[in-house]
Amino acid sequence: MIVAHTNLIASFWVPSNMEQLAYRSLKKDPEWIAPLLWASEFRNVLSLYYIIVKRFWIYPPFFRPLMKP
């Protein structure tokens, strides 16, 4: 059983440098648990992603591979 941090869970929906780690962790042990606060933290991660990438088109280093030339 893996106790998953919100950033690890969010990497399945938001492109990040942790995506491969998340899939390897899921493959190693598919039974995960998370603290009750994870849903609130997850909403915060998604809102920050929207503000940074979708609304203002600011690309931090880990989003640069997603940029179109």
Write a brief caption for the model.
With 69 residues, this protein is mainly alpha-helical. The longest helix has 18 residues, at 38-55.
Provide an overview of this structure:
- The structure is a single chain.
- The longest helix is centred in the C-terminal third of the chain and has 18 residues, at 38-55.
- The protein has helices at residues 6-10, 19-28, 38-55, and strands at residues 2-3, 32-33.
- The protein is flat, with a radius of gyration of 13 Å.
- It has 69 residues and is mainly alpha-helical.
- The chain has one domain (2-66).
- A two-stranded parallel ribbon has the order 1-2.
- It starts with a strand and ends in a 14-residue tail after the last helix.
Q: Count the domains.
A: 1
Q: Please summarize the sheet with the most strands.
A: 2 strands, parallel
Please tell me what the overall shape is.
flat
Major sheet strand order: 1-2
- Low-pLDDT parts are none
Cα radius of gyration in angstroms: 13 Å
Give the termini separation: 42 Å
**Structural class based on helices, strands and sheet pairing:** mainly alpha
Order of helices and strands: EHHEH
Number of DSSP helical runs: 3
Share of β-strand residues: 5-15%
Mean pLDDT: 77
**Estimated helix fraction:** 40-55%
